Amino acid sequence: MSELPAFPPGFVFGAATAAYQIEGAAREDGRGPSIWDTYSHEPGRVTGGDTGDVACDHYHRYPEDVALLRGLGVDSYRFSLAWPRIVPDGSGPVNPKGLDFYSRLVDELLAAGIEPAATLYHWDLPQALEDRGGWRVRETAERFAEYAAVVAGHLGDRVPRWITLNEPWCSAFLGYSVGRHAPGAREGRGALAAAHHLLLGHGHAVGALRAAGVREVGITLNLDRNLPATGSPADLAAVTRADTQHNLVWTEPILAGRYPLTEAETWGESLTGADFRREGDLELISRPLDFLGVNYYRPIVVADAPHREADPARRVATDNRYQEVRLSGVRHTAMDWPVVPRGLTDLLVGLKERYGDALPPVHVTENGSAEDDVPAADGTVHDADRVSYLRDHLTALRAAMDAGVDVRGYYVWSLLDNFEWAHGYSKRFGIVRVDYDTLERTPKDSYHWYRALIAAHRA
Ligand code: FCB
Cβ(421) to ligand 1 under 6 A? Predict the structure, then answer.
């Protein structure tokens, strides 16, 4: 471990997963359908026609997975709660069996000496709410507030760290504009309304969690490190639009209590007469947080581009005149994502520069890499590329801390190979291999490496 810089005492090492990606048991014990059940069952949406029906079968195998976490020695485990397991119709009766599952999981974690960190929403909206408009409508934020209150009342005394939303950019823009995530819509105004209602739902959930007296509340954002393809004014302006859509749309309301100053230039017609915003919303959205969760995988190189649609009425909110350029000279992971650890340092330092004391302590709530793992004859996986990825990103994280950013924890994505959304089971992010025929779990070299790192830190 000598090549790795030391982390301060109390620094949290963790691992992360999400409900739809691992649980399976999609129709068991009263769970209602979510937008991901619907979407994954639609032909052509997910690679190989994969669905989360069985996934890693974590719903039944959670004791084995908690044992893997205990063996790893992590301080904390980040998982998400499936809203449709707890409120199957999105509103109305609560399903006690759904709550019981998470209660058992939390008890199992606590008995193993692992602090639970729960995400309320990792993309699996109850389908019944999508049928009534989904995140496009304000009602969904109100139903989310009720769900948050139920969960906080039930688990708030045993779960110290709470994350309201995971990567709302994906929910709003991949879900309602690009159409590559559930519910698969391609809209302009709809995606911007979704972004606003997600923010509002977050604000309500902060209130519900505070009322239950939980220790720490935060939100997880996938903030992008956008780099200009060239120094031309056109590319620099494209970076501003990309920053607005990926980052400022969240950080400005949450941390500064205002909408991005660059939003009109970024969204143009899609934003005109944004009647989904109401007075008082920003006060809710900017309620103080105990931490900011940041997910980082790669930087994005941005170049200017013309509108894809000449007709303003047909433009979607993501079509704001930029395109992604492939970075050369660096390794790319199985996702074809460039490996640039330095991007994590720069992202965190940039956040501190922009928000100063208004930036709460940070937890890196996801970081990891998909690799084309090839198991050896004895079933073990020698994933040297993933080990380098993790080591180099932890080093980059430490550099951000040296530069003055208050980072309190790091969660590797992911404990298990799992359902990687539109890629199905074709992309493996786990530090533990899952054989999807037998559901057998096999720790990879990266698991053993991470365990040794944590042990060295403790010693
Ligand atoms: C993030 C998601 C997570 C996982 C990783 C690879 O965007 O939050 O569920 O899919 O990417």
Answer: yes
What is the domain range of residue 123?
Answer: 12-458
Q: What is the pTM of this model?
A: 0.98
Q: Is the residue at 6 inside a domain? A: no
Residue 325 lies in a domain: yes
- 7 within some domain: no
366 lines ligand 1 (CB under 6 A): yes
Q: Looking at the 3D structure of the chain, how many domains does it have?
A: 1
Residue from 120, 295, 428 whose mutation best tests the ligand 1 pocket (most atoms within 8 A of CB): 295
Does residue 296 have its Cβ closer than 6 Å to ligand 1? no
pLDDT one-digit tens code per residue, 207-232: 999 999 999 999 999 999 999 999 99
pLDDT (0 to 100) of residue 308: 84
Q: Please answer whether residues 259 and 334 qualify as being in contact, where contact means their C-beta atoms are separated by less than 8 angstroms.
A: no
Residue 5 within a domain: no
Task: Find the farthest-apart pair of alpha carbons in the chain and give their distance in angstroms, rounded.
Answer: 63
- Are 68 and 61 contacting, i.e. CB atoms less than 8 angstroms apart? no
Q: What angle (nearest 5°) sits at the alpha carbon of residue 260, between those of residues 204 and 253?
A: 20
The CATH number given to whatever domain includes residue 140 is 3.20.20.80
Nearest ligand 1 atom, CA 21: 9
